[in-house]
Amino acid sequence: MANPRQSGGNPRRRYGRRKGCRFCADKTLVIDYKQVDTLKYFLSERGKIVPRRISGNCATHQRKLTEAIKRARNIALLPFTASQVPE
C-alpha cells in the first residue's frame, strides 16, 4: 500500500521577500578590508562569514566581501574566531 504524499512542500518553510544587495542599491558603499564596522555586519556572533542567502548580497559583492574579510583577518583587524561565547 502506497503512502499518500502531502502536496505543498514543507509547512515550516517560509518564503519572505528577498533582500536586495546593499552594495548594489547604495553605490556609495565600498567594500574595503580597512572598514571593520562594515565587515562585522556580515559576520556571525562566532566570527563566521554570513552566507549570501541570509545577508542578501549578490554573488559579485559576496565574493568581494569574503575576500575583504579574509584579508582583514590576516592583518589582525578581525578575529578568526570569536572568543568563548557563554552557553
TrEMBL record:
UniProt xrefs under SUPFAM superfamilies: Ribosomal protein S18
Keyword Zinc-finger belongs to the record: no
Gene Ontology cellular component list: cytosolic small ribosomal subunit
Molecular function via GO: small ribosomal subunit rRNA binding; structural constituent of ribosome
Keyword set includes Ribonucleoprotein: yes
Sorted UniProt keywords: Ribonucleoprotein, Ribosomal protein, RNA-binding, rRNA-binding
Gene Ontology biological-process entries: translation
Function: Binds as a heterodimer with protein bS6 to the central domain of the 16S rRNA, where it helps stabilize the platform of the 30S subunit.
PANTHER family: 30S RIBOSOMAL PROTEIN S18, SMALL RIBOSOMAL SUBUNIT PROTEIN BS18M
NCBIfam families: S18
Family: Belongs to the bacterial ribosomal protein bS18 family.
Summary of subunit composition and partner proteins: Part of the 30S ribosomal subunit. Forms a tight heterodimer with protein bS6.
Name the record gives this protein: Small ribosomal subunit protein bS18
Organism: Geothermobacter ehrlichii
Gene that this polypeptide is encoded by: rpsR
